[in-house]
Amino acid sequence: MAIDKEKTRELLKSIDELFDVIAVGLNENTKNFLKKMVMGPAIEEIRKLVEDSRPPIMLLMGRSGHGKSSIINALAGKEVAAVNDVKPETPESVPYVITFPELHSTWQIVDTRGIFETTKPTHSLEEDAVTVLKNSIIKYNPDVIMHVISTPETRNLSNDFEVYNEIMETVKKEHKLRIPTILVLNKADTIGNPREWPPEENAKKAGHLLEIIDYMADDVLKLEGLPINKNYPYYGYETTDNNYVGIIPVSSLEGDLWNISTLSDLIGNHLDESAQLDFFQAQKRSEQLRKISSSLIKRFTGIAGGIGSSPIPLSDISLLTPLQMLMISIIGALSGRELSKNTALEYLGAVGVNVGAAIGIREGARQLLKLIPVGGALLSGSVAAAATYSIGKSAEAYFFYNKKVDPEEIKKEINK
Ligand SMILES: Nc1nc2c(ncn2[C@@H]2O[C@H](COP(=O)(O)OP(=O)(O)OP(=O)(O)O)[C@@H](O)[C@H]2O)c(=O)[nH]1
Ligand SMILES: [Mg+2]
To answer: Which protein residues are within 6 Å of ligand 1, measured from CB?
Structure first.
């Protein structure tokens, strides 16, 4: 299970009802203040995360047979694109959608098959192929472009980069589009001796890969690249000051995938926030989803802290429970749990609050109160923020790492 829009709407509705119950008896000013400063922004955050989320759009280009379809399959973790297709006769771009129904995610792929039709190094690019590529970039305005090249052929294809850079200049100038492109050096396994694989166990192969990456960075693309992983520089480089934002060697051969997660991370870094959830959820990238969870906790902490600017002193910490129940449910869903109040209740049960069967969200919220580490007598902004942060981090530890951490302990940590 994961996050889906329908369930989110249901959850937001029950959080809203919870708020109404808790706000009973408050005076009108306080209620309005809470709605405007606390519940409104919290719901807006979730709306941004879920309702505004959209499929990432990824465009692939590169010569026929260099592995565009294989890379899509490797990233998606399933066979969605035909590998070793009949060679296309005419250049075209084929847009298609990959769905991950059980993960509530969708990707949009634009495969520009046949555009760089030949693998013969001496054969320059056809005029109409360049036009098709340019028009596809403008039409689909992808989040990321992957330029796929077979590693052993890198040294023969420098002309492709000139053509591509010209296209991108036009796209930038005339259409004001700036689209990050990742150079994917596919078939990394096939350079040198294919038996010396993987590079982690073969220093010679690792050196060979690094040489090619350096050559591409220095001589062909002329970019200042920084290793993405300092311990493994041959996992690839990234840069900011170029149409190309990185060079990543991979193997996308089915059954022998290598370095795909580095590629996935770099794509993720260049995706608009609205496209990240669909991208990472589809791949069950737990660490990336945890990062989304962490940034959500920070935002909710900030929102809770807003309570400090209330025109009248608030003393009732239970005013925060709708916000926190919402946060816990979303953290759980990001970790792959069902998106519902039951997920929040599961957490409460796990960290030692007595939640009986069929407990309602209202009772859950009451129980949650037992967990909230309270510092002062009055509900100040900083007390509200620390309590929310502690609960968020505790829920994150539980859902992502299966660890039971008392929020009180986390609060002690922040106070240090
Ligand atoms: N050794 C090795 N072979 C690969 C790798 N990636 C793809 N291949 C093989 O290369 C061939 C072509 O791969 P495709 O993914 O069909 O290439 P494509 O770029 O989509 O080709 P077109 O659709 O014709 O433009 C297939 O036989 C793949 O199995 C890799 O990383 N290593
Ligand atoms: Mg293909």
So the answer is: 62, 64-70, 83-85, 87, 113, 186-187, 189-190, 251-253
